[in-house]
Amino acid sequence: MKPAKIIGNNLKNYRDRFGYSQADIAKLLGVERSTISKYESGEREISIVHLNKLSDLYGVEIEDLVAENHEEQNVGLAFVFRKQETEKEDLESIACFQKVVKNYMKMERILKENENTA
Q: Which domain holds residue 29?
């Protein structure tokens, strides 16, 4: 399978798991909704900048978004309660929170590995 198609499938799977619409993701990335559709279908390659933003939003590593046979991560560390529509600022705040949690979990894992080798 082509890399763009693999990434597209992963992007769609994560978006669906979090319950975001293509319009929500388009707001976060500052692109048209049709661009998100093209990313997800593999018709268009996504930039590393956009991959970075999405990895923060979903609380996963970029590798999880690009790997064909990645292990599904335990995502969903942050939840959003919406009245009607998620604003770009809401998505940016969620992404920042997810990034903090992801980095904290990474540091905890490293500390445990260091304790085990000491």
A: 3-117
